[in-house]
Design brief:
The protein is an alpha/beta fold. It is 42% helix and 22% strand.
């Protein structure tokens, strides 16, 4: 049974710590944690102590020099770290009894992703991977609606980011070595898969090819029998950047709606984590799902030329 972090009427709210100090931590994680009315933003740890101190001071919370001290003081922790830094720290946090609000991908190796999922199960803690389309509105409701419809035949998704555009003027998120090394397959691939899988079913086969820049095209077969594709990149020209997903089946053509409120979506992901902790019912976007996404991406990457 997952431990209950929901406060009693007379008790304190659950304490949430943040690990990470990069652009996403500043723009999404920290504002959402500070604004959340059902929990207390307790503190910040980062690999750069001066950046952690600056972020903690902005929100009037404690800065931690040691992640294990943060784990000891918190009921749950949120991650805004590169995947291969996140994974071993998440295992330590789970062992300390902290519920996990993870970033995607959980890890970039199947072994490390599986270690996170196994640690969450072994220590009886709740976990949620923040997959934007599964928590933003109206996309979250749209995914649930389409998952309930029968007769899907095929789907085509694209997520073309301009983090490293050809004109050489990178975005604020370009100062990220892991994104530069792993590209769109790993950074935005989890988003596309997080929508395709609940609607079309588990991925039973995957093939991958490479296009210009860091473009990767996935061809997927699903347990339902449907086929889908996903085109992924962080190196698209700014004029060509965008996100879309189209479903086709016996009930016609349905298109993913737009969304914008990412901090709000992050707050709903925290709601989902606290609900899973209270009820003992694992969230569909938990660490187990995150591990499966990593396994699919590892299989796809192995097919690409270096």
């Amino acid at each position: 049974m997952l431990s209950d972090v929901t406060p009693s009427p007379a008790g304190p709210p659950p304490r949430i710590g943040l690990l990470g100090t990069g652009p996403w931590a500043h723009r999404t994680h920290a504002p959402a944690l500070a604004a959340h009315t059902g929990s207390e933003f307790a503190g910040v740890w980062g690999r750069r102590p001066e950046a952690a101190a600056e972020l903690a001071d902005t929100y009037g919370v404690k800065v931690y020099e040691d992640p294990d001290a943060l784990f000891a003081d918190c009921d749950a922790v949120a991650f805004a770290l590169p995947p291969d830094v996140q994974a071993p720290l998440a295992v330590r946090a789970a062992a300390a009894g902290c519920h996990l609000l993870l970033d995607k991908p959980v890890a970039t190796t199947a072994r490390e992703a599986r270690a996170v999922a196994d640690a969450a199960a072994r220590h009886g803690i709740a976990s949620v991977v923040f997959l934007t389309l599964r928590f933003a509105e109206p996309t979250a409701g749209w995914v649930a609606e389409q998952a309930a419809r029968p007769g899907w035949f095929t789907a085509a998704a694209h997520w073309l980011g301009a983090v490293f555009p050809p004109d050489g003027t990178p975005s604020a998120y370009a100062a990220s070595p892991w994104r530069k090394a792993k590209g769109g397959l790993w950074d935005v691939g989890p988003h596309a898969l997080s929508v395709l899988i609940p609607i079309l079913g588990e991925v039973t086969a995957v093939s991958a090819t490479r296009g210009p820049s860091d473009v990767v095209q996935l061809a997927l077969r699903h347990a339902s029998g449907a086929a889908s594709s996903a085109v992924l990149s962080l190196g698209a020209p700014r004029a060509a950047a965008g996100v879309g997903l189209e479903l086709r089946g016996t009930e016609g053509v349905h298109t993913l709606p737009g969304w914008s409120d990412v901090p709000g979506a992050y707050g709903r992901a925290l709601d989902a984590l606290l609900t899973a902790a209270r009820t003992g019912t694992p969230d569909p976007c938990g660490a187990e799902f995150g591990a499966r996404l990593t396994e699919i991406l590892v299989e796809a990457e192995a097919q690409l030329p270096t």
